Request: fold
Amino acid sequence: MGLIPYKNEPGLDWSDEANVKAMRAALEEVGDSLARNYPAIIGGERIEVDGEIVSVNPANPSQVIGRVAAASEREADMALEIATSTFESWSRTAPEARARILLRAAAIMRRRKFEMLAWHVHEGAPPWAEADAQLAEAIDFLEYYAREMLRLKDGVEIYSVPGEESRYFYQPMGVGVIIAPWNFPVAILTGMSSAAIVTGNTIVMKPSEYTSVLGAKVAEIFEEAGLPKGVLNFCPGYGSEIGDYLVTDARTRFISFTGSVKTGLRINGLAARQIENQRWIKRALVETGGKDAMIIDDSADLDAAAQDLVTSAYGYAGQKCSAASRAILHADVYDEVLAKVVEKAKALKVGVPAEGGVDVGMGPVISEPQFEKVAGYIEVGKEEGERLLGEDPGDPAEGYFVSPTLFEVDPEARVAQEEIFGPVLSVIQARDFADALRIANDNPYGLTGGVYSKNRDHLELARHELRAGNVYFNRKITGALVGVQPFGGFGMSGTDSKAGGPDYLPLHMLARTVVERF
Ligand code: NAD
Reply:
């Protein structure tokens, strides 16, 4: 296939009035299409079910975005059955044909960009630029994995002994269960699903209950792209109701999960068991949370460091697994950096993204349980240290808003150790760089980490010793680009499957060695 070289999808230029107008028009149009019903889609059939997920706007919880089928074990069983039978044909479909579907899905996402952004802004309430960056990431996954499949379709080179030919190639695995979080409701769902599909597997796709309308839109795009019926089975539902069933079933060959460490460990444990009629050891790709640290050294460009820290900590209300939630500041620049961070964080405009336009820098958190969790941690932080910024959260009935919050604490404080997943940053003072590195590494998570420094020795030390899957120097620590910054964590942050990287697709396939003696 003669494809143009891969490059990242560019972000929209929001200083261009035409884009702002197009976005407002899309928001209005989508606003007229709210509260519709979305069935499950199994084997290409729309399946009505008894249960329902009512998805609401986190900035205005009384506004219903859509009513999505809440699949029960019955539908989960149907989805696994159809996925199992469809595997026979899809696994034998040419890799080029599979890749073409992804490229077509990318083209559809580009064409439907403003519409998709508008659905995202309504259902997840991210700022516009955040929604745009996430849609670009979804497009990138499709474009990148299509090319990766073409690279890997004939296997990779190995050596042969004289008189023999050794070949090493990959083949599809079976039925994959894709379980996604709400915080990248289009990008991560598309990335995990497309990787599984392009490698010849069939899937049962379960989006997060908080962003199931967006899940339905992604399923619809794959359908529009010409994916044969039964390859992707859209099975929305509550994790607590169908999660264990999907993970445990003997027909499930692998699970690709992104979400909290608690759910991830449960899935990992259940997947490890063999049940009756199960003929394989299930593979579990489990990508989880973070408690990501940014170290600011005494030699750093302090203005740039403070700005990137604020962006990494509060962008998207801190709801990124990569978000900076621990700022570790060298004692000599501690007060100066802190003053700059407070000033820049105060300047962030918190508001309703659907109404407030492109200037809104921070929206609400996703849901009432998440709001309560963050509010609880704010109480803990007040006990543990000093709150330098932020107010007590208001009434969740008026939107799940939490203001940018900053605590000055000791490294052992719970707010500095546990993932909060909201706009709450803990600031810790370090004696020197070695102390900063020790504090950064003293945490079970290991997803992203950053260092701001001009000291070459410190950067070289951190290059190897900062314990995180994604390490960034002198820049923000969020917003990993597909194909450029493969993403995945160490420690309790996951199995380091590195989404958007060259090792990702083989995790969805079985490698086969065939040797022929001549
Ligand atoms: P979550 O674990 O609550 O839910 C994730 C998914 O798992 C949802 O679809 C949910 O329905 C499902 N689920 C819940 N219980 C289940 C069960 N028993 N069996 C099977 N599935 C079940 O996580 P969340 O709140 O949706 O997402 C936020 C978390 O995701 C944070 O911890 C964040 O750090 C993490 N995250 C990690 C990455 C990464 O790449 N490492 C990326 C994004 C988010």
The mean pLDDT is 98. The longest strand covers residues 60-69. The two ends are 32 Å apart (CA to CA).
